Amino acid sequence: MALESLMESIAADIADATKTLFETMILMDLKYDDAILVDDTQIRTDVIGMVSFTGRYHGVIALFCSKKFALKIASTMLMTELTEFTNEVKDAIGEVSNMIAGNVKTKLAAQHGDMHLSIPMVIAGEGLSVTAVNNHSAVADTTLSCFSKDPWLMTPFISNNEMFNIGLLLRESTK
Amino acid sequence: MPKVLIIDDSAVMRKMIQRIIQQSGFLIDEFVEAGDGKEGLEKAASSNIDLILCDWNMPNMTGIDFVKALRGSGLKSNIPVVMITTESSETRIEEAKNSGANGYLTKPFTPDQLKTKLGNYLLVK
Fold first, then answer.
1. What is the CB-side half-sphere exposure of residue B79 using CA atoms within 13 A?
2. What biological process terms from GO does the record include (chain B) (predicted)?
3. Given CB atoms, is A105 within the 8 Å cutoff of chain B?
4. Are A155 and A33 within 8 A, CB to CB?
5. Residue B33 in domain
6. Given CB atoms, is A75 within the 8 Å cutoff of chain B?
7. DSSP assignment of B21-49, as one string?
């Protein structure tokens, strides 16, 4: 399967997994649109929840959202109103990213062999951007890398009048 | 009344599971928490645990390695273990069963699905 087709297929799996997650555990309404390719210069966000994966294909699945939306998600999961951006909020975003990536992994592994997921990583700030310089991979740990020239395949979601995105970077692994 | 050990590297998930169990009306004496399989083994050995709920993917020691170590230890080897994980393939479910897990629930789950699963091990007030 061509990489572009596979990415579109994974984006559809991401949308399904996110919808199921919001219907079962987060209990917030959710709508989404078609995935589009987004250059890294277009990404501005407060919170990033990332899970990288390795196997026949490797890449990153990342949730991009505002602090306000991260607080809403964490408050719903903990069934309590959170107003401060604490480590619990980061933990909640990490777990949400992990559940989405985990469900996508199961579908991907059924077609392309066993895969390994990293432990989720959450980064929070204001107006964060994502890039890697000079077309070299920026290695954050042994499994996570961002490819500066590769656009993200980004699925836009809307819930409770808040927009958030889930992006995908994918490459075929060298044998 | 039973003591329940919840092993998950996400503190939010541990709290969420506790809240659902409490709201479901199960008779619980105490919740004990662990952030990975290694800490889970220590807590299982030092407390009188009646039921273990365990994630799969965790740092230091995974949930499946925890189950294998617990069942292989001889001590506490009869405590029921329910895996609660994003690993949802048939291969993983089979591996968990063969390693000694008694039940399996995939994330994400609804409160009702958790309640039904735990109804096999806990009594309602």
1. 32
2. phosphorelay signal transduction system
3. yes
4. yes
5. yes
6. no
7. HHHTTB--SEEEEESSHHHHHHHHHHS--
Among chain B, residues having any CB pair with chain A shorter than 8 Å are: 9-13, 15-16, 19, 57-59, 85-89, 107-110, 113
* DSSP letter assigned to residue B107: S
Give the bridge partners for B44, in sequence order: none
Number of domains composing chain B: 1
User: Which chain A residue is nearest to residue B59, measuring alpha carbons?
Assistant: A119
**ipTM for this prediction:** 0.89
Q: What is the pLDDT of residues A6-23, one digit of tens each?
A: 999 999 999 999 999 999
Cα(A64)–Cα(A44) distance, integer angstroms: 9
- Residue B2 dihedral angles phi and psi, to the nearest 5°: -75, 150
What CATH number did the domain enclosing A93 receive?
Answer: 3.40.1550.10
Angle value at C-alpha B104, between B72 and A21, nearest 5 degrees: 140
Residue B56 structural domain: 3-118
Amino acid at A22: F
Inter-chain contact B87–A21, Cβ cutoff 8 Å? Answer: no
| Total domain count, chain A | 1
Residue type, A119: I
- The DSSP element (H or E) to which A23 belongs, if any, is none
Q: Do B107 and A117 touch (CB under 8 A)?
A: no
Domain housing A22 = 3-172
Model confidence over A13-57: pLDDT tens digits? 999 999 999 999 999 999 999 999 988 777 888 999 999 999 999
